[in-house]
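Data deposition worksheet. Section B asks for the primary sequence of the deposited chain exactly as it was used as input, without tags or linkers unless they were present during the calculation. Section C holds the resulting structure in token form. Section D is free text for depositor observations; keep each observation to a single sentence. Incomplete worksheets are returned to the depositor.
Section A, Depositor: J.P.
Section B:
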Amino acid sequence: MLDAWMWAREPKDADGKRGGIKESTRWIEGYQRIAERAAELPGTRLVYVADREADIAALMQRADELGTPADWLIRSTDNRSQEGGDRLWQKVGGTRAVGEIQFVIAARAGQKARTVKQSLRMKRVTLKCGLAVTCVIATEVAPPKAFHYTQVPKGL
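Section C:
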């Protein structure tokens, strides 16, 4: 890990708005910092990893403007429209699995540790904004019946 940026959200005002810098700006600045480090470390592959809040076109476009000096991996929150009207998750989820991974997920409140097996699907797609990206979908194979996903792409 080369960099981490943590902050607390500003409280909402009487109108329900938050003060301070927009969170989307923080995500973009985070990528820019990793991109700067990539220039200092030729021959080293850097990957910017972010959660759903960073699933914004402005960040992807900024990475493209910079020539994508660092790869980026962002957990998707939007089932984005594609050129031609297709939806991202269905388009990628409908492809043949390219492999599987297996790992142990640690115990947490109300859940025992368990082994997870996921199938991996990937496809190069062009987003409606014109950016070409590689989308990877990891889907658990035979999850426990009582298991609740945090996000399930519809149609998969």
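Section D:
Residues 79-143 form one domain.
Helices lie at 23-40, 57-65, 88-93.
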